[in-house]
Amino acid sequence: MSKVSAKDVALLRKATGVGFSDCKAALEEKNGDIEEAKIFLRKKGLANAEKKGGRVAAEGIIGIQITEDFKKAVMIEQNCETDFVAKNNDFVAFVNKLASAALNNDIQDADKLMSEGDFESQRQQLVLTLGENIQVRRISHMAAEGEVVHYQHGTKIGVIVDVEGSKEVGKDIAMHIAASNPTALSIDKLPEDIVNREKDICLAQTKALNKPAEFIEKIMEGKLNKMLGEMCLLNQPFIKDPSKSVQQYLKESGSTVHQFVRFEVGEGIEKKQENFAEEVKKQLGD
Length: 286
What we know:
about 290 residues, alpha+beta
């Protein structure tokens, strides 16, 4: 095998989208011939697998793993292109394998996780087998002050909650979080940019009322607290009994929520809207 240059490896990577080590190995195998290396990668299936990587993967599954003492948990979002593949046994097994590895080895980052062992090769093989773009999008770890309780709504929504007190209460809260999608635990935990955004909205709405200046601040404060409260778990009406807040429900049950994480498959990913009629017209040259 001949020695290859970094420049040739970079050219092959740009042409195929395949990773550095595989491109280097292909060039070494083909004595530095880039065209032959492309064919070599295609024969191995790598080039085709990487080509699928450009397609939008907004479907998928949430995987959760928890330690036996319920003190630590990991939640992973793994994406594919269709709901059909999301239900495939091999696809499901892969996310569970990844979640276990992330939990056992305290791996916080999706890219780092995929570089462990042969996970990237396994992912590429799944791409080839299932014919879709498959990506590990994000990982969240939780170290609990109390115990971790989790809830999954099908495979699309996953919630992990750090609860001190009743596990049954924790399960109720996890279900509430899945349904109500709070932004934060309490108002003081909201990100500053969200608070500032809501302040601007409330100020604009209040000024539009044309009230005397001495009333504006009080009206704005009331509107802001209401809007921010609706975003926060503890202030929300409890989904099983809307006559009381989540905070009241927790107090009555002698339980405390310290933190939570909620994942929903595909949230924040812009899905491509296919227009098949227009596509056919283009193919016909209309």
